[in-house]
């Protein structure tokens, strides 16, 4: 399973820990991923996603999963989230 947020695309980064004496130690900075179940109001079902804690705050700020997906860029979304976005757009255009 990739260490990547399904909604924002946030992934691991590499870098250095720099000491006071300016020694550099390689390290990996990983995103804070959590498994959540979010409710889609338009589709009427719940969706399990592995997203970062920052993305969870963004979803709540935008007013739910549906509003977040409609504004999200397709390049950042995972395959599962992209199909969910397509289903959501089809459902909204049908109504």
From TrEMBL:
Keywords: Ribonucleoprotein, Ribosomal protein. GO terms for cellular component: ribosome. Belongs to the bacterial ribosomal protein bL28 family. The lineage of its organism: Bacteria, Pseudomonadati, Pseudomonadota, Alphaproteobacteria, Hyphomicrobiales. Residues 10-20 have a biased composition (Polar residues). The keyword Endoplasmic reticulum does not apply. Residues 1-22 are annotated as: Disordered. This is Large ribosomal subunit protein bL28. Pfam families: Ribosomal_L28. Signal peptide: none annotated. It comes from Bosea robiniae.
